[in-house]
Model the fold of this input.
Amino acid sequence: MTEKALRLGTRRSKLAMAQSGQVADAVSQVTGRPVELVEITTYGDTSREHLAQIGGTGVFVTALRDALVRGEVDFAVHSLKDLPTAQPEDLVLAAVPVREDPRDVIVARDARKFTDLPRGARVGTGSPRRMAQLNAYARGHGLDIETVPIRGNVDTRIGYVRSGELDAVVLAAAGMNRIGRIDEVTDFLSVDTVLPAPGQGALAIECAAADAELIAALAELDDPFTRAAVTAERSLLAALEAGCSAPVGALADLLADGQIVKEMRLRGVVGTTDGTALVQLSTTGPVPETHEGAVALGRELAAEMLAQGAAGLMGERAH
Done:
């Protein structure tokens, strides 16, 4: 008798289906059970409002979590950067697999790089974080750009460039990789230019806290370094009391000496959307061995950023 299929809850977007499909294959391998995708429509998928207005955090996640709690699906896959920083008690983050490329990328007309964009170039992004950093970089390097708020899936966004409505759009490298369209990217933005969203490029596999057997199986897909990094990044975000809609960037990376990982560096940035004011700091310490250690790293850097005026840059705090 074949074992009952595990039900994986996923959003319906092309990107969500691609990343869920990859996770489904991996889960099938570690459990020996078939995995079926259950498509769930979320508020973030149906609303046409700008993400910052509908409270960025959680709009893509709530419906999936509700399905988990109701037992309609056994586990769910989220883009980690969409997850609110507070974890519900009845659900557990069972695995954070190895992270994809965390960088942001540009798709521009005429295969241009960001620094080659024409004067007055219109650059589309729905993210205040990207706007703040791109505008700050442009200002510091004598570039003249206008950031234009957009939303929609990858096709919609790239369509604005192809139609000539925009000169460039900003997307996440990880998403472009997962849907097999990385060859359309015209420029990879260095993390020194634009720090990604906390958790960008990483996936979160979530299931019911009561399902000990599934938690144990999914744990095989967990990458401890990725988990430590994203935990530090999300702890920074939580300590800044910033919802997803606030312009916060963060990246924890590992500093290695040859093959031996020595330390973790956490960088954080918060700024005004027009890029006129930016607080950007970093801290380096031993690689956190525990969840609490990773959380502490994020909190410490957030405290330093707040001491340097970060709170005043975020405008209205996201509640």
